[in-house]
Amino acid sequence: MRRFLPDLFTIGLLLCVLLASLFPAHGAFAHGFGIATDCAIALLFFLHGARLSRETVIAGLLHWRLHLLILAITFGVFPLLGLAIGLIPDSLLPHPLYLGILYLCVLPSTVQSSIAFTSIAGGNIPAAICSASASNILGMFITPLLVGLLFSLGQTAGGFSLDSLQTILLQLLVPFIAGQLLQPWVGGWIRARKKLLMPVDRGSILMVVYLAFSHAVIEGVWHQFSLENLAMIVLLDILLLLCVLGLTLIGSRALGFNRADQITILFCGSKKSLVSGVPMANAIFSSAMIGAVVLPIMLFHQIQLMACAWIAARYAARPAAE
């Protein structure tokens, strides 16, 4: 049963939302906290770049058919499903929450959990490492461009601009490249101290969530949406995940991938990254919108962890010959 209970990170997210609801950051404190949050996010992506070895990148890049399929699902199938959700009337799905769903659909895949579940299920681990990492690197460019394209198609005010793209590149991509350049010297030391550096990984996201919901609370986010609206978001997140899980499984089998590759495609293609999504939302959207935009991502995060934990356990318990 513990697989279906929230992990400590999810509990931390909920506590940040509660703290922001009771004691939102504002004034000089919010400004200083925002600067500290930007620094923490830059450090996070520096560590991501420093952890990824060159050998892993080269080994994974050779499996180009698998990577193309995962990228097509992540940045193609997901956004199309997001546009289809836009057909739901505003009376059932308020427009700010729909923006959150649509933004969720253009995010890159996760890294850590995709690799972990692929490993548990007996999938192609080198390919998973490369595919998930490539998704996050390309997502720094593709996600803001898709926001600009799809949000304008849907006649939505997403707040995207070239300044947003510049902020993302400076805050996320530049530290990542710096980490890759220094990887031969610091990569081994960082990988050997994974538990010591985990607070940076989790803590930076908790800081962004607290700051985002502080802005949202000040703008009156909890007065805008009802419990029925939140229930609708949970239902849509579940249906979205089930749909993509089914498509990845059927598509990988139809294209003739072996069992290990099917597992990798299933887990890397169906996930969406909270770690990348929240910082990019902070750069793309206005403070008045960011709380509603981040909410569907936070819910989807826990749903995908519970579902994929169960699926990975099923694969691990089943003989490879089945």
Automatic annotation (TrEMBL):
Q: Does the keyword DNA damage apply?
A: no
Residues spanning the membrane: 34-52, 64-88, 100-125, 137-162, 168-192, 204-225, 231-252, 273-293
Q: Which UniProt keywords apply?
A: Membrane, Transmembrane, Transmembrane helix
The domain of life for this entry's organism is Bacteria
Record keywords: rRNA-binding included?
no
Q: Which Pfam families match?
A: SBF_like (PF13593)
Q: Which Gene Ontology terms of cellular component type are present?
A: plasma membrane
What name does UniProt use for this protein?
Answer: Solute carrier family 10 (Sodium/bile acid cotransporter), member 7
